[in-house]
Amino acid sequence: MDKKIVIPGDLLSENTKKSGYGTYVRNGKIYSSLCGIESLKEDKVGVIPLAGAYIPSVNDVVIGIVIVVTPSNWILDIAAPYDGLLHVSEYPRRVESREMPEILDVGDSVILRVKDVDSSMKIELALRDPNLHKLKTGQIVEVEPVKVPRVIGHGGSMISMLKKETNCSIFVGQNGRIWIDGKDEDIELLSKALRKIEAEAQRSGLTDRIYNFLKTERVKQRESRSVKFFKNETKDVNAASEGHSEDIYRKIDVLLDPKN
Q: Which of 47, 78, 82, 156 could form a disulfide with 22 if both were Cys (CB 3.0 to 4.6 A apart)?
């Protein structure tokens, strides 16, 4: 069953103590203040927006892309209406101005923390943490920031399953940028799954749906590899001796093994 879509003004609850994100209280009742998906929990009632730009908050961990290098700052696109500033003093070690492009240059992707956001939306970033670093491998997939909770899942259930079923490393930035790394076919599979999560975020039972999707896509990948193998080996099978043919068929059995 799909989750309930609500619009501003829809009644959500009569227990005002449960008022959460995307709601307001009037006359002892909770109403939706957004167009989105109703979120009902034991202690909170809220609304998950269907769309919207990423608005930075202090301590958010995001993926930024360097767009300008100045004598004392790196300016980064953080997928928000406002750019972020990483001052050289927020780099883990002392950096001279001449070194800056060598450390982080235009186009480089970095995992950072939002250190401060002032009233004028000046966003200060920090890199002083072992878990924050430049991304040197893998690729970035972007989803709508409001869909990030669905990518992570309740208690991290979705992201744990994605890691296990795709054999990929994953980092989900709160700004909707997701870094993934692994073998090419695993990255391709994970990218498809992320797009499906984004498209079906409003549906219930999403973790199970994505799990089944991944299993089906794995079968398709194996079948595709098998077809390529047969095409490449046809001539060898026809020309090979009986002993060599048996060896080729053993290779085919390995390819078709569900464990591979």
A: 47
* Cβ–Cβ < 8 Å for 173, 63: yes
Alpha carbons 258 and 260: distance in angstroms, whole number: 5
pLDDT of residue 1: 45
pTM of the model: 0.72
Q: Which residue has the tokens 């767009």?
A: 67
Helical pair 157-166 and 206-239, crossing angle rounded to 10 deg:
0
* CA quadruple 31, 146, 171, 79: dihedral sign: negative
Q: Give which of 53, 7, 64 is closest to 32, Cα–Cα.
A: 7
Domains of the chain, earliest start first: 5-49 (2.40.50.100), 61-135 (2.40.50.140), 137-260 (3.30.1370.10)
Distance from C-alpha of 40 to C-alpha of 12, rounded to nearest angstrom: 9
